[in-house]
Amino acid sequence: MSGSEAVKFNTRSVVGPMQRLVATAQNGLEVIRFGGLVHEIESSPYEIAERKRMYRLRHYFPDAEGTDRPVVLLVPPIMVTAEIWDVNAADGAVGILQAAGIDCWVVDFGSPTTEEGGWDRDLADHVLAVSSAIDTVNELTGRGVHLMGYSQGGMFAYQTAAYRHGSGVESIVTFGSPVDAVAGIPFGIPYGVASGAAEFLADHVLNRLPITDSMVRLGFQALDPVKTAKARIDFLRQLHDREALLPKERQRRFLEADGWLGYPGPALTDLLRQFIKHNRMMLGGFVIRDQPISLADLKCPILAFVGEVDDIGQPAAVRGIVRAAPNADVYEASVVAGHFGLVSGSTATKYTWPVVRDWVNWLSQGGEQPAQVVPMSQEVARKGPSTGLTRAVHAVGSLAEAGAGLSKTIEGVASQTLRGTVELTGEAARALPRLTRLGMIQPHTRISLGRLLSEQARRGPEREAFLFEDRVHTHFAVNQRIDNVVRGLITAGVRPATRVGVVMETRPSAMVAIAALSRLGAVAVLLAPKSELTKVVELTGTKLLIADPENLKDAAATGSRVLVLGGGDARALDIPAGCDVTDLEQIDPAQVAVPAWYQPNPGLARELAFILVTGTGDRFDIKYVTNHRWALSAFGTASAADLGRKDTVYCLAPLHHSSGLLVSLGGAVAGGSRIALARSLDPAQFAAEVHRYGVTVVTYTWTMLRDILDADTFPNGHPHPIRLFIGSGMPAGLWRRTQDRFAPARVLEFYASIEGDVVLANVSGAKIGSKGRPVPGTAKVELIAYDPISDEIQVADNGFARRCADNEVGLLIGTASDTVDLSAGGLRGVFTPGDAWMPTENLFRRDSDGDYWLMDRRDTVIHTPRGPVYTKPIVDVLNDITAVDLEVAYGLPAGNRTLAVAAVSVRADMRLTPKDVTEALRDLPPDQRPDLIYVVDDIPRSSTFRPSTKAVQAAGRPEPGELTWWYNRETENYEVLTEELATRLFA
After folding, report:
1. How many CB atoms lie under 10 A from the CB of residue 968?
2. Cβ(227)–Cβ(255) under 8 Å?
3. Integer Cα distance of 144 and 604 in angstroms
């Protein structure tokens, strides 16, 4: 083009940009003045059907025709307004569901800023509000509701339905509602990090800082800065095009400002403690007004919407519902959407709400199951987001649209590496202070059960201490109850060092009685109900007894003074005539003048704290437990089992047994765990309470778990929260059955000596039947050569005791502390001049790895002509036979010799043959195999569930026949005992 040619002028090239600029300025000014574009989209009509302090109940489209319609009740999360269900008007939840003929009701919690007492609300307030709303809708419509909740509103839906045991609820539908905190903390944060942060925030921040609506809004926007930036860039780029922006304007304003509410501190504290810290939505034991609940109580159909790119309600966390609610039919609908996109926006309009509509109609009217609804799989990934490719494509697309550049490539790998490191470090961090404190205990150190409970109450007075019969008791309440009982004991004349017998069933008042005696400095003599109380009272020097109403009569029969405690609100005491009985419940603690000598928790480590009694008839074993010995077991158990505040310990073991006192109560108190008390061993109750309380650790004694396994209340593969069984005396076969049935839970078997400070624990559980190794901080142990026939320690050429070689049976001894009275069976000069040791009552062998295996008690070794025969390996091998139920082994006198004999009972609907016994006992050396094995109908058990050898012996010697087998040492087989052989054998 030559310079003389005129330049063409096109007015459209100027007018178009000017119009766009003017439109942008006009729309921008409108946004500045009014907070957004003025639009004509109206909210769906509703009326307030009920107004209460905690909520308002909205009924949408109240004038709609038809009364016999399916009913849905929609629950928002705390921090989002109830308009979330109507943010897209006709294209939103209530619009689409109403068009399908579904009656819509919405719970509106309101803003804590404007509602009376709003900032003081906790989670229980919200759950009870939803429950009240369900009652109202049930009454007004005459129908059950399909309960639906978004995000935390879905968690409320789960919790409320469980709290009501499903009453009035037809089904549950949730949208991005996490259940398993361990499986998916938002953004792949390691659970150990999130758990620690949650505890810190709950204890030190949220009780001082209100979470306002602006803080909530900024927090959510900060959680997904890419999406927030993209939305704002898109809005600015289209600010000139009013028609394009208007359909999304209501949703934009909702997310930018109007849709957010403040979060009451108590509610957030509950969320962090119960959901994040303790994961109780998943495990059970979530507390609503002192009542523990479990999602295992849910039985109605459940549909969970899963956002495959949801970084807040992560898929693995949302899918935890399938394991948390094993008794319900659980379905899922997977959506490629983020957290907000599940319920609002184009994806929700096109996918979510049509599926919800079809779900409600399917359940209400029958017909075909919606194609998008599929059963949720039990196999749930626990390593963070399982949709990496989808997430990457979704994120890259969003970033490209917004013109931003942000990489999340290393998030997954880094989070998983950090997760394992933090959790392993956390376990060590919990154990180290306990072991350090254990190592610092000196004879003059003040340490006792009462003192530890005082420490727990001071650190967390509102934390849960005990659970019993579906009630939760806080540390504050328990501590106050203990102090009140102490005042009653003082009135009754109890002083420090007084020996007081406790004859009570397992219940909170029994624990309180034991703790009150400890706080007073008295000695608790723990006695089994229905035992030979008169003899034991005399043997132990007991001055008076504490009993519950059920055991009052037996306690009074001893002739001792009796103090009655517990029994509940409605109780009547049947006091025998002429007995000295004081009802502690009738003493007003406020009227008791505390004497000058009283000092709370005066117990020193060296002082006697408890006396345990086992045995019957002419043979009683009396175990004297000092405060140091109790602390040794308590802190040792807490360390070996890694007990912490996340755990709930189910106390099946009775408190009068060492496993109940030292392991259950001691370990839980030292670890800061909740203690769930079982009144008795009831398999059905056990199954219900394990879920309802969120039990993670179960304690046992001997064959206690056999009753639970036989009842089949937990079929193989049935989800449960248990991670550990701890106790003592479990035979090998029952051990194996327990681990198979409750996998991946394992068994932690303890051994504690009657005398001395020896404590062994099989921490790994790899060697079934082994007692493990010494617990750190307890007595050093050695195995010395011992002749069970002559009852003498074998010495080396230098005169000192000979240490046993690997797998040689010997006497287990432990180092004696300075306060031990060696004249009561102790040893000096065992390995060096002047060293001090305390022998145990048991014989062990130590394998080449250093693990100890119990062989027998010193006084129950069978002395046969071929040498000593040890009973423990026999019963372990027999118990490992599938058909064998219970078993005992003992020595049977036959003329001038003793036979090694074993009696077994057979499990129902099973058969035991001589061949089964022969094959099983090949694991033992020929000289250790019993001479006779016979089948009995039943083997009685003691109050601690130990098979009773004495009861079997009292029934008489085995009779010849098809169910009695003798060991033929020539053929190495067990064969039927005939009359002729029996005559020769017993001659």
Report:
1. 12
2. no
3. 61
Cα–Cα distance for residue pair 932/924, rounded to 1 Å: 15
Residues 6+ apart with CB under 8 A from 206: 265, 268, 269, 272
- Record the tokens describing residue 672, joined without a space: 């800061």
User: In this structure, are residues 692 and 284 in contact, taking their beta carbons and an 8 Å threshold?
Assistant: yes
The partner residues of 73 in beta bridges, in order of sequence, read: 105, 147
Burial of 445 (0-12, 13-18, 19+ CB in 10 A): middle
- Separation of first and last alpha carbons in the chain: 135
pTM to 2 decimals?
0.82
Contact 794, 786 (CB under 8 A): yes
- The mean pLDDT of 299-303, rounded to a whole number, is 96
Backbone φ and ψ of 161, nearest 5°: -60, -40
Q: How many CB atoms lie within 10 A of CB 409?
A: 9
Give the residue among 731, 738, 729 at the shortest CA–CA distance from 708. 738
For residue 442, count other CB atoms closer than 10 A to its CB. Answer: 13
Dump strand ranges (E) for 801-921.
Answer: 810-815, 827-828, 836-846, 852-857, 862-864, 867-869, 884-894, 897-906
Whether 284 contacts 158, CB under 8 Å: no
Dist CA 360 CA 146 (whole Å): 7
| CB of 784 closer than 8 Å to CB of 651 | no
Token representation of residue 294: 């479990």
Residue 174, helix vs strand vs coil: strand
What digits encode the pLDDT tens for the residues 462-518?
A: 899 999 988 999 999 999 999 999 999 999 999 999 999 999 988 889 999 999 999
Q: What is 242-276 written as a DSSP string?
A: HHHHHHHHHHHHIIIIITB--B-HHHHHHIIIIII
Distance CA 904, CA 910 (A): 13
Helix (H, G, I), strand (E, B) or coil at 893: strand
DSSP symbol at 122: -
Secondary structure element (H or E) that encloses residue 132, with its range: helix 123-141
107 Cβ contact list (under 8 Å, min separation 6): 55, 57, 58, 73, 74, 75, 76, 82, 129, 130, 133
622 Cβ contact list (under 8 Å, min separation 6):
539, 540, 611, 612, 613
- Return the bridge partners of 898, or none: 893
DSSP code of 463? Answer: S
Q: Please give the torsion angle defined by the CA atoms of residues 317, 322, 327 and 330, in that order, rounded to the nearest 10 degrees.
A: 120
Q: DSSP secondary structure string, 203-249?
A: IIITTT--B-HHHHHHHHHHHSHHHHHHHHHHHHHTTT-HHHHHHHH
Closest CA to 843 of 872, 885, 802: 872
Distances in Å between the Cα of 323 and the Cα atoms of 171, 297, 609, 684 are 17, 12, 43, 20
How does pLDDT run across 731-769, given as a tens digit for each residue?
999 999 999 999 999 999 999 887 778 999 999 898 999
